[in-house]
Design goal:
The protein has 448 residues and is mainly alpha-helical. It is built from 18 helices and eight strands. The longest helix is centred in the first third of the chain and has 37 residues.
Length: 448
């Protein structure tokens, strides 16, 4: 082979990355051969020899043995089979094309990884639930626009991420409905003239149904786009949580201490511990977004049916999945090892007039329209700012100058922990509501 031919061969080869599909390729091929035997397309004796050879390859792959390098993993499996059982191995490819074969392998791969992701997301939710239960009394400022808004329980805040990850699992389960459709039997694009039994293969490989248009089946990569989109949303949630851990661990907030194993020292400043792991999760999210844009760009103008452009879907897919898995694998122990500083959180919750809304609600309960109450409390806050006071510092007489509806009961509302425990609505931040939330989450996780 001359240098030009070798250069082209190396350029078009996908073996360096699609060998990850080897297990699925062999399992799919075994099912295909069984169907060929059942449909009397090849003799039972020949099918038995082919399946025996494929099983021996599968055993070696599972032991970590590598296939010899070829143009792609599919040809590598076929060549290895022919090496082991002779030219009979070439009958394995009867009534199928590389196009429907690779579509099958990718669907089986994604189906498997969706299940892995759902399990690890559940593990992260369990870590969050454990932190919430352990720190059920910790009070912190709740924020909107990064400004002090209302006091909340730390448990309530951290649990919000568990529900994000629960939605991620629901998206993955929904994605699985479209992934778990068998494309095999579509051949190159027009189907096959052999009398195959696609439903039989679908049952063997645990697919929920079969594709109904052969052109669509071999050219469809929507399920990859959808899966990477789901991975991007997971990465978004991991990045948002990472950002909060970074902020909370800063000297300005000092709400938490990250586990030492997940921080690094400075090369010049001996006193510093940097939240590098959380920062890298935040950065790697951009890589996953890039993968989503890459697959969308590859597919955006492809005519039907299969085009070689689609070979480039796999490194994108694998990178997105690996990146999210790497992030999840470090986020779980980082969350589990968080040390909460409830004293610092509580002190912060006393600043910024966090109980102002509760004062307005107090007036509303006395019959005042909320908009009027809102204006009165706004003036009250301005009064405090000019006099360098907090709401809890105001006397009963000072409060009554703003509204005669204020009485001695109002002072109990100015303590953040009291304000929190009034929020007993479902999903609210009272300790009773949060305990119910933890219980609900754990019930869901037990069903996994």
């Amino acid at each position: 082979m001359d240098n030009k031919a070798k250069t082209v061969q190396d350029f078009v080869s996908s073996f360096s990355y699609d060998q990850r599909l080897a297990v699925f390729d062999v399992i799919g091929s075994i099912a295909h051969v069984r169907m060929l035997v059942k449909s009397k397309i090849i003799p039972a004796g020949e099918g038995k020899k082919i399946i025996k050879g494929l099983n021996s390859i599968l055993i070696d792959i599972n032991k970590g043995k590598k296939l010899l390098k070829e143009e792609d993993v599919h040809y590598a499996v076929e060549k290895e089979l022919i090496k082991r059982i002779g030219v009979l191995g070439g009958k394995m490819h009867t009534a199928r094309s590389r196009n429907d074969q690779v579509a099958l392998d990718i669907r089986m791969y994604i189906r498997n990884e969706i299940r892995v992701l759902i399990d690890i997301l559940s593990d992260l939710e369990k870590s969050i639930a454990a932190q919430a239960a352990k720190n059920i009394k910790a009070v912190m400022p709740g924020y909107t626009h990064m400004q002090h808004a209302q006091p909340v329980l730390f448990s309530h805040h951290i649990l919000s991420y568990a529900w994000m990850f629960e939605r991620d699992k629901e998206r993955l389960k929904d994605c699985l409905k479209r992934v778990n459709i068998l494309p095999l039997g579509s051949a190159a694009l027009a189907g096959t003239s052999f009398n195959i039994d696609r439903n039989y293969v679908a049952r063997m490989l645990s697919f929920d149904g079969i594709s109904l248009n052969s052109i669509d089946a071999v050219s469809d990569r929507d399920f990859i786009i959808e899966f990477i989109s789901d991975l991007s949303i997971i990465a978004t949630h991991l990045s948002r949580l990472s950002e909060e851990l970074i902020i909370w661990s800063s000297s300005e907030f000092d709400f938490i201490k990250l586990p030492d194993a997940f921080t690094t020292g400075s090369s010049i400043m001996p006193q510093k511990r940097n939240p590098d792991v959380a920062e890298l999760i935040r950065a790697k999210t951009g890589k996953v977004y890039g993968d989503l844009m890459a697959i969308l760009t590859i597919m955006k103008a492809l005519p039907l049916a299969y085009n070689r452009d689609m070979q480039e879907d796999k490194p994108i897919l694998f990178n997105a999945f690996d990146t999210v898995m790497d992030c999840l694998n470090v986020m779980i122990p980082m969350v589990s090892g968080l040390e909460i500083k409830p004293g610092n959180m509580s002190e912060a919750a006393k600043k910024g007039f966090l109980c102002a809304t509760e004062l307005a609600d107090f007036l509303v309960r006395k019959g005042m329209p909320f908009r009027t109450a809102h204006g009165i409390i706004k003036n009250l806050v301005n009064y405090c700012i000019k006099r360098n006071k907090d709401l809890i510092d105001l006397s009963a007489n000072e409060l009554k100058t703003f509204s005669k509806l204020f009485n001695n009961d109002v002072h109990s509302l100015l303590k953040p922990e009291n304000t929190i425990n009034l929020k007993k609505s479902i999903g609210g931040t009272s300790s009773s509501s949060v305990k119910n939330q933890i219980s609900s989450l754990r019930k869901i996780l037990k069903k996994i």
